[in-house]
Specification:
Protein name: Trp repressor binding protein
Bound molecules: flavin mononucleotide
CATH topology: Rossmann fold
CATH class: Alpha Beta
Family: Belongs to the WrbA family.
Distance between the termini: 27 Å
GO molecular function: FMN binding; NAD(P)H dehydrogenase (quinone) activity
Oligomer: single chain
InterPro entries: Flavodoxin/NO_synth, Flavoprotein-like_sf, Flavoprotein_WrbA-like, FMN_Rdtase-like_dom
Shape: globular
Keywords: Flavoprotein, FMN
Number of domains: 1
């Protein structure tokens, strides 16, 4: 039997759906690269009383991520809506359960990126992306943003930053991805997949 394909884990939280739409677009970019798959996973909301209030399997959409999803990925895209210029608590909560992988150096040298969604144009897209970058660096991952060779970065009137793709979702979180945002999210997924494949094969090669 042939080995399973390596995969890029697209791990996101979305309350109103904007970040979920972006995650799907990123997956399309990943799957435009031959030899690698996208695996979409989400995280449950956290309760103010710290009780488990959600069923183990969500009613719709991506299933919840496990540490094994993260352990075995060839690359990682972290996605979160902006919450006061920062990543959302449910995603941070999951990230804070990854000490075991950090101690084992499991994610060292794997490529990673981040994406976000905001209601206002200058509402903290870059800071949110950087808030997600920080734990990725602690894990020893290789961060891949978006290069300006993606010409939509200069042209966009909505989201899109060199730190990663972003989306202006509007006050009701219902503004669809515009053409530049679609292009940039796809390009980011494809780039991450390319890097993941290259580093994955190199990790198996003799030093
Ligand atoms: C508690 C909270 C804080 C937020 N903080 C910001 C913010 O700092 N800047 C901003 O532009 N939007 C902010 N928003 C709006 C969300 O980032 C925005 O609606 C996002 O598109 C939601 O993504 P989702 O549809 O994937 O849940 C906030 C929303 C909530 C509920």
């Amino acid at each position: 039997m042939s080995d399973p394909l390596p995969y890029v884990l697209i791990l996101y939280y979305s309350r109103f759906g904007a970040t979920r739409a972006r995650a799907k677009r990123m997956a399309a970019g990943v799957e435009a690269c031959r030899g690698i798959e996208a695996r979409l996973r989400t995280v449950p909301p956290v309760s103010p009383t710290c009780e488990a209030v959600d069923p183990e399997i969500p009613a719709e959409g991506a299933v919840y991520a496990s540490l094994d999803d993260l352990r075995h990925c060839a690359g990682l895209a972290l996605g979160s809506p902006t919450r006061f210029g920062n990543m959302a608590a449910p995603l941070k909560h999951f990230v804070d359960t990854t000490s075991e992988l950090w101690l084992g150096g499991t994610l060292v040298d794997k490529p990673a990126t981040a994406f976000t969604s905001t209601s206002s144009l200058h509402g903290g897209q870059e800071t949110t992306l950087i808030s997600m970058l920080l734990p990725l660096l602690h894990h020893g991952m290789v961060y891949a943003g978006l290069p300006y060779s993606e010409t939509a970065l200069m042209a966009t009137q909505g989201g899109g930053t060199p730190y990663g793709a972003s989306h202006l979702a509007g006050q009701r979180s219902d503004r669809p991805l515009d053409e530049h945002e679609r292009q940039l999210t796809f390009a980011q997924g494809k780039r991450l997949a390319r890097l993941a494949l290259a580093l994955h094969h190199r990790a198996g090669a003799p030093a």
